[in-house]
Amino acid sequence: MRTRVIDYNAAEPRRRFNLATATTIPHSPNRMRLATIRLNTGPNRDTDDNKVELIGTVGVRGVTGISQLLFRIFRDGREIFDTQQGIESAGSEQNYAVTFQAIDSRVSGTHVYTLTVEDRATGTTANVVGPISFSGLATRRTESTNV
Question: Which domain of life is it from (predicted)?
Fold first, then answer.
């Protein structure tokens, strides 16, 4: 089997760490949309061979307490992935670049993927300080051919 690239897309809303543009992360159930991308996996009768690899990196800073940041990825408004990261504040580590990967399997057609973050710990504060990047690679397994 071989893998064929069908589509690729990336968003980079913030390229650098910058305290001057820090944005406070809302507490659950509210969330902040960080980035959105659109991918086309093409029409395929056998979606078992399709997958989308998604990678997100978000620069965050702990301000008060130990925040519990919940990062989510949505496909067309439906959650398909989440991960949580604890973020410490003053007196310890404060700045983090959180990176994660998700695989969305058996998909066809065009989809919008959205990356969000929210703080699940009450009485804490964390900020998005950058960078932010979100990318997706759509692939399909194909029969190998001998050349």
Answer: Bacteria
